[in-house]
UniProtKB/TrEMBL annotation, chain A:
<keyword id="KW-0004">4Fe-4S</keyword>
<dbReference type="GO" id="GO:0051539">
    <property type="term" value="F:4 iron, 4 sulfur cluster binding"/>
</dbReference>
<dbReference type="InterPro" id="IPR036008">
    <property type="entry name" value="Aconitase_4Fe-4S_dom"/>
</dbReference>
<protein>
    <recommendedName>
        <fullName>Aconitase/3-isopropylmalate dehydratase large subunit alpha/beta/alpha domain-containing protein</fullName>
    </recommendedName>
</protein>
<dbReference type="GO" id="GO:0003861">
    <property type="term" value="F:3-isopropylmalate dehydratase activity"/>
</dbReference>
<keyword id="KW-0479">Metal-binding</keyword>
<dbReference type="InterPro" id="IPR033941">
    <property type="entry name" value="IPMI_cat"/>
</dbReference>
<dbReference type="InterPro" id="IPR006251">
    <property type="entry name" value="Homoacnase/IPMdehydase_lsu"/>
</dbReference>
<keyword id="KW-0456">Lyase</keyword>
TrEMBL record, chain B:
<dbReference type="GO" id="GO:0009570">
    <property type="term" value="C:chloroplast stroma"/>
</dbReference>
<dbReference type="InterPro" id="IPR033940">
    <property type="entry name" value="IPMI_Swivel"/>
</dbReference>
<dbReference type="InterPro" id="IPR050075">
    <property type="entry name" value="LeuD"/>
</dbReference>
<keyword id="KW-0456">Lyase</keyword>
<dbReference type="InterPro" id="IPR000573">
    <property type="entry name" value="AconitaseA/IPMdHydase_ssu_swvl"/>
</dbReference>
<dbReference type="GO" id="GO:0019761">
    <property type="term" value="P:glucosinolate biosynthetic process"/>
</dbReference>
<dbReference type="InterPro" id="IPR015928">
    <property type="entry name" value="Aconitase/3IPM_dehydase_swvl"/>
</dbReference>
<comment type="subunit">
    <text>Heterodimer of the large LEUC/IIL1 subunit and the small LEUD (SSU1, SSU2 or SSU3) subunits.</text>
</comment>
<feature type="domain" description="Aconitase A/isopropylmalate dehydratase small subunit swivel">
    <location>
        <begin position="70"/>
        <end position="117"/>
    </location>
</feature>
């Protein structure tokens, strides 16, 4: 009988293995949060960066772009009649190409529905009537925001998604990362995935957060500092007094763009802010883990946010950092506020606050795409602080912005040609989204400046890239 | 689609640093489902159509396959999205291997899992030295890249554990070969 070789690695190119000091298991080894989560998920007492381990999956998420391919692979490899490993751990969220006449896009949502019914998937956020998102009670919208709002993100868990911004969920103190169709198909059949444990880079954010600065500025600043490959294969752990004082949505903004630095996952320790957010959202119990005091980091960066200015990522890279006030001569054609990065409720409240404070109207078309149905409702119900009892929607209307659109990913990644707010001409856009490589929002020669909601709103008021301090 | 043999020969196509997934396969084409054979072929015909206009066309007008079996790239190739459509479109177009200074992790992982192409690492960036159209031989058995047009030879980093997975045809084929999971039912 031939001995069966184990799969040792299917992930990273070979790197010299870092050997941990000999451990009998009774010797406690200091670990980071990411290492602890993966250790527990792989039933190991401890592990070190560089090790390849089989982890159990708590949640697998997929959407309309990658779901059909994942399903195809699952059926091909496990059989046409195969059943998923756990019908309650698969969350299917149509969100990318929804409000379009593109037949294939619409067909892809049908494929998800067929699979969800066949497998009796518990969490399928379906949409059937494309003419009015509001008449679809199950439909949520952008997957990463929906995962959080629907209580699928829990401290200490392992979440995989067929989308690069799955790292957003790390804000909840869990391990969350993006994977492709083949890996996802494997998880559907087995519930497991082979993962290489990443070393952790620590980012300590301290100081007093100025009123004109946003979590988006912080992550753009960091990416500009370490470059688009600065965190490749690594975990990015965010800590410090500034992070402790952040809301969940701010933490999600930080973790969302970890992938833009090449990061494998982002992570923030769970605390009372996390537990309060989760109150009433999830029935499942969870057990947070925390980085040991003597854990070793691959690198440590310290920032004093009191010294930072609003920044943008200039075309055509998320690490092409520029100070917003130095870009004041850049004429723009439009502003886009939306996506998993910058289309959450608090992002819109931030933009609305600035617009209201200015008392002025926008000079360029300003597109608003709430990430989910819940965010859309918030725009019409939440009263913006310090704005005479007005809602976001009222402020946007008075400032001359476009009417908030149907929740989805929309133009963040271009999409089919009829996608709302897609750039079909070579225009310049300031956007609260996450990537600005050539052609990202449509036309190859269009230019995207990534920015915070404050900077986006300020730019809309002037028609140029504008530092929000002009209005705050 | 497992590449056959470990020696590849032909014209190379050169790209620079940070070629992201939107340039490899623009998002508007993501409605194509890679597991459907006719849509798989269509993805191949669209490989690298997102590159800026100063690049030559990777797949000629009206063609379904590329004339370039090998891509030479700079650093951080495949950054951006986790979409598997990226390595799939390259493999479907006829690419056998990419030789890059470095890769983004999800793209590397997807290339290995699908078995669509060999993501090889060069010792240093070749993207400024090579020119599109140079005739090259890539020998993955001896980890050597020869540029016949410029009469130069380069050592490559070994594929390591990723090699056998791609040789077998990707994650599932490898998992079956090694007995990790059973054969698919007919």
């Amino acid at each position: 009988m031939k001995s069966v070789p184990k799969i040792v690695a299917v992930t990273a190119p070979p790197r010299p293995q870092e050997r941990a000091p000999a451990s009998t298991g009774s010797v406690k080894q200091a670990m980071t949060m990411t290492e602890k989560i993966l250790a527990r998920a792989s039933d190991k007492g401890c592990l070190s960066p560089g090790e390849n381990v089989w982890v159990n999956t708590d949640i697998l998420m997929t959407h309309d772009v990658c779901g059909p391919g994942t399903i195809g692979i699952f059926k091909r490899e496990f059989g046409a009649d195969a059943k998923v490993w756990d019908r309650e751990k698969v969350v299917i969220i149509p969100d990318h190409y929804i409000f379009t006449a593109d037949e294939r896009a619409n067909r892809n949502v049908d494929i998800l529905r067929e699979f969800a019914h066949e497998q009796n998937i518990k969490y399928f956020y379906d949409i059937k009537d494309l003419s009015d998102f509001k008449v679809n009670p199950d439909y949520k919208g952008v997957c990463h925001v929906a995962l959080a709002q629907e209580g699928h993100c829990r401290p200490g868990e392992v979440l995989f998604g067929t989308d690069s911004h799955t790292c957003t969920a790390g804000a909840f103190g869990q391990f969350a990362t993006g994977i492709g169709n083949t890996d996802a198909g494997f998880i559907l059949g087995t519930g497991k995935l082979l993962i290489k444990v990443p070393p952790t880079m620590r980012f300590v954010l301290d100081g007093e957060m100025p009123s004109f600065l946003h979590a988006k500025d912080l992550i753009l600043h960091i990416i500009g500092e370490i470059t688009v490959a600065g965190a490749t294969y690594k975990a990015m752990e965010f800590t410090g007094s500034v992070v402790e004082n952040m809301t969940m949505e701010d933490r999600m903004t930080l973790c969302n763009m970890v992938v833009e630095a090449g990061g494998k996952n982002g992570v923030i320790a769970a605390d009372s802010v996390t537990f309060n957010y989760l109150e009433g959202k999830t029935q499942k119990s969870f057990e947070p883990v925390y980085t040991d005091g003597s854990a070793r980091f691959n690198a440590e960066y310290k920032f004093n946010v009191s010294e930072l200015e609003p920044v943008v990522a200039k075309p055509h890279s998320p690490d092409n950092r520029g100070v917003a006030r130095e870009c004041k001569d850049v004429k723009i054609d439009r502003v886009y506020i939306g996506s998993c990065t910058g289309g959450k409720t608090e992002d819109f409240v931030a933009a609305a606050k600035l617009l209201h404070a200015s008392g002025q109207k926008v000079k360029v078309p300003t597109f608003l795409v709430p990430a989910t149905q819940k965010v859309w409702v918030d725009l019409y119900t939440i009263l913006v602080p310090g704005a005479d009892g007005k809602t976001c929607a009222k402020i946007f209307e008075e400032a001359g912005c476009e009417t908030p659109a149907s929740p989805s990913c929309a133009a963040c990644l271009g999409g089919p040609k009829d996608t709302y707010a897609r750039m079909n001409e070579p225009q310049v856009c300031v956007s609260t989204t996450n990537r600005n490589f050539p052609g990202r929002m449509g036309h190859k020669e269009s230019q995207v400046y990534l920015a915070s909601p404050y900077t986006a709103a300020a730019s809309a008021l002037t028609g140029f890239v504008t530092d929000p301090r002009k209005f705050m | 689609m497992a590449p056959s043999g470990k020696v590849f020969h032909g014209e190379c196509f050169v790209v620079q640093d940070n070629i992201d997934t939107d340039q490899i396969i623009p998002a508007e084409h993501l409605t194509l489902v890679p597991s459907k054979p006719d849509e798989y072929e269509k993805l191949g015909s669209l490989a690298l159509c997102g590159l800026p206009s100063n690049y030559p066309r990777f797949v000629c007008e009206g063609e379904m396959k590329t004339r370039y079996p090998i891509i030479i790239a700079g650093s951080n190739f495949g950054c951006g999205s986790s979409r598997e459509h990226a390595p799939v479109s390259l493999g479907a177009s006829g690419v056998k291997a990419v030789v890059a200074e470095s890769y983004a992790r999800i793209f590397f992982r997807n290339s290995v899992a699908t078995g669509e192409l060999y993501p090889v690492e060069s010792e240093f960036s070749l993207s400024k030295e090579f020119e599109t159209g140079n005739i090259v031989t890539l020998d993955l058995e001896s980890n050597v890249l020869i540029n016949h047009s410029q009469n130069k030879q380069y050592t490559l980093k070994p594929l390591g554990d990723a090699g056998p997975v791609i040789d077998a045809g990707g994650l599932f084929a490898f998992a079956r070969k090694t007995g990790m999971i059973s054969s698919a039912s007919a």
